[in-house]
Amino acid sequence: MASTSDIRKGLCIKYNNDIYKIIEFLHVKPGKGPAFVRTKLKSVTTGKVIDNTFSAGHKIEDVRVETRSYQFLYADGDTYHFMNTDDYNQISLQKSSLDAPDLLKEGEIVTILFNTEDSMPLSVDMPASVVLEVTHAEPGVKGNTATNATKPAKVETGARVNVPLFINEGDKIKIDTEKGNYMERVKD
After folding, report:
1. What's the start-to-end Cα distance of the chain, in Å?
2. Which of 73, 78, 93, 148 has the fewest CB neighbours in a 10 Å radius?
């Protein structure tokens, strides 16, 4: 059993007869009244995100997890196929268990969390950033550079990302997988 002081991003807990992954949390200590922890939980079975508040010191039942490296092979509709990089076993997961499926490129190495009790895959952790090629970007409008002006661009996985005006088709860019934001242009 863990308590609210053990809450961290990525922790898997049992809550309301389901397993949830903590995707955001905030410890709050108001001037009046007891402290509490505000959390955003994502169900690993349905993908539904809920908000919940735990009072300070509340006992939570954490789920023991094991991490393994897998390589993304391909997507077939809402089913994503992965291969274990150690023993070459393949597994299939639903799109709802992925945090940023639109930024996943074939051949990308990800970390998959497994429940140690029943070896069921719980969720897929993407690397902190990915490098993708821009396949479509509108030309930047001259004179639009007074502030941090951005334009929409489409990358090779089909995701849309707002990029600075100097990014063109064919450029490789680094994208933050947590927020889906442009980070920097990558030189070859």
Report:
1. 49
2. 148
- 51-89 residue pLDDT tens: 999 888 888 888 888 888 999 999 888 888 999 988 888
Domain end, chosen from 96, 125, 154, is at 125
Mean pLDDT in residue range 11-32: 87
Could you say which DSSP state residue 144 is in?
-
Give which of 63, 64, 66, 65 is closest to 13, Cα–Cα: 63
- Do 64 and 73 touch, CB atoms closer than 8 A? no
**94-130 as b/e, with b when 16 or more CB fall inside 10 Å?**
eeebbbbbebbeeebebebbbbeeeeebbbbebeebb
Query: Could you tell me the CATH number of the domain that includes residue 118?
Result: 2.40.50.140
Q: Report whether 63 contacts 122 (CB < 8 A).
A: yes
pLDDT digits (tens, 9 = 90+) for 22-38: 888 999 888 888 889 99
48 and 98 share one domain: no
Q: In 54-74, which positions are buried (b, 16+ CB within 10 angstroms) versus exposed (e)?
A: beeeeebeebebeebebbbee
The C-alpha angle with vertex 7 and arms to 15 and 112, in degrees rounded to 5, equals 75
